[in-house]
């Protein structure tokens, strides 16, 4: 699942790598939704794919179209800055993530406006974002974003990863299910 799917760069990268069983895209911009739909149609025509790709024009602070604990991975590139109030979004993300599931935010720090400088950019401090994830019960890590096959660092970009806590039995079950799905 991708929140703030934008112009489809994330979708294109996904379709050119591992093909999942289902893709959910959330985007509030009508212009970007049109671009996403074009990419989907082109992919389906070129590959005769029956991959289920769903596009929702909705804010991700409420995702009634997703069941509890139904999503393995959630990705958002350059989107966490705009999620306000962040705690409400994270609560909903936690609801839809399976135990052991991951939310990954790609974030550019160092050149963002200061807090309060704009109405739109409200989450510009990586430590506060990580703290908000921890308050929601996520295990949190950060990594530098690498490009070009891992040879170069993407300037000022950081990957913030939140993993929904789970028991070992839940983790083992989810990993076994993932292996079974990938072998089909």
Structural commentary:
The longest helix has 18 residues, at 30-47. 26% of the residues are buried. The chain starts with a strand and ends with a helix. The chain contains five helices and seven strands, in the order βαβαββαβαββα. The chain has a single domain (2-182), classed as 3-Layer(aba) Sandwich (Rossmann fold). The protein is α/β, with parallel strands linked by helices and 184 residues long. Helix 1 (9-15) links the parallel strand 1 and strand 2 (22-26). A four-stranded mixed beta sheet has the order 4-5-7-6. The protein has a three-stranded parallel beta sheet with strand order 1-2-3, covered by helices on one side.
Counting structural domains, the number is 1
- Quaternary organization: single chain
Order of helices and strands: EHEHEEHEHEEH
- Strand-residue proportion: 25-35%
The portion of residues assigned to helices is 25-40%
CATH class: Alpha Beta
Low-confidence stretches: none
CATH topology: Rossmann fold
